[in-house]
Fold this protein.
Amino acid sequence: MELWRGWSFADAVADQTRWAAFERHLEVISEASRDLPAEWKVRHGEHIPWTKVSGLGNLLRHVYHRLDGHILWDIYENDLAELEQSIVAMLSDQ
């Protein structure tokens, strides 16, 4: 994700506009994950916690005022690349 390349967590949360875009990006990913066929999830992302991915959108929409930004940053640093690899594999398998 190019949005934060070279940024620290402190820099990211200080830029409210960019942070809002980041949250929206995660929300879109969450919503899109709900429409992926189950067989694709098993074949290309068995290790992905799809229930958590789809549930993140609800948290961003309804509990946004209590979300810990560190959790979202952890998703960025540790989970998005693996999720992207699964999605790329799904798209190339069509």
Summary: The chain has a mean pLDDT of 93.
